Amino acid sequence: MTADAQATLSLEQDAYLRSRSDWMGAYLVLHAWGVMALAMAVFIAWPNPLSFIVALVIIGGRQLGLAILMHDAAHRALFKNTWLNDTLGAFLCGWPVGASLTLYRPYHLSHHRHTQQKEDPDLMLSAPFPITRQSFWRKMRRDILGVTAYQRRMEIFRMEMGQDPSRWQRLKNLIASEKYFFLSNLTIFTITAAAGVWWAYFALWLLPLLTWYQVISRIRNIAEHAVVGDNNDRLRNTRTTLTNWGMRMVLAPYWVNYHLEHHLLVFTPCWKLPAAHRLLISQGFGPRMELAQGYLQVLRKAVSRPHDDVDHGAPGHARKRAQLI
């Protein structure tokens, strides 16, 4: 947090924002899985194109929610108990969506230390913006068609297999790295098969993960750090996007839209970020903060480049963020 903002916190406010709850952590994890199970059940009970699209959007949103809860666990803010935080954050939040808490934590903490600086491992995700509308819609098409998910996963597989000349050793490296992703997804498939709807794993779990999850992950990445006011000002190099409950449900679950508050008060659990926002506003920081009134406002700024010279992607090490958030 900036030094002057840190100084405004009373001991009571600091203690409140830092306090974590095992009960709340458990509720959030159960909520994410419960919402997805309900969306699946509704479509299975009333199968039609509209209920399928609704299920895909809701489930993809909660899959992002799992990644966000793993992000909280990376900051040891999801559960008060360290074992619960690291174990449930990995096995119930990260691995089902292909994210590794162990790999993500050091990567993400480096992002916090060097936000929008040349050492920031996420800088490649925000640096190309603004882009053209044509480039943006090409990215959206790749996301919704599953091309982005495939390309990123293949990049991760190549990284995990390494350069060992032995094909068997490369395969062993891949299995060792991906075993929990495979096991968690096998568990989901087994549960759907036991319920007599084996196809639900592919249509209502894997498809949202390959499509809508990719779309909203990209939009969230853009909103957090692209086309910000000042890369060197901690109140301006990260953005909070204020939006309504409907957009939060499908695009920004678990208060992830309060991203500036998260960077300033990194120890704060996600469910206390709205309170952190109110605290900062009440203390007069509002005019200095990078705030947007909705995701459309952010996208208009991010997609304002007039000429389509090159289609910026996320090559190389940035693609490993597919297993991150």
From TrEMBL:
Keywords: Membrane, Transmembrane, Transmembrane helix. One of its GO terms (cellular component) is membrane. It comes from the Bacteria. Residues 306-325 are annotated as: Disordered. GO terms for biological process: ceramide biosynthetic process. Pfam families: FA_desaturase. One of its GO terms (molecular function) is sphingolipid delta-4 desaturase activity. InterPro entries: FA_desaturase_dom. Residues 49-280 form the Fatty acid desaturase domain. The chain crosses the membrane at residues 26-46, 52-70, 180-213. PANTHER family: SPHINGOLIPID DELTA 4 DESATURASE/C-4 HYDROXYLASE PROTEIN DES2, SPHINGOLIPID DELTA(4)-DESATURASE DES1. This is Fatty acid desaturase domain-containing protein. It comes from Limnohabitans planktonicus II-D5.
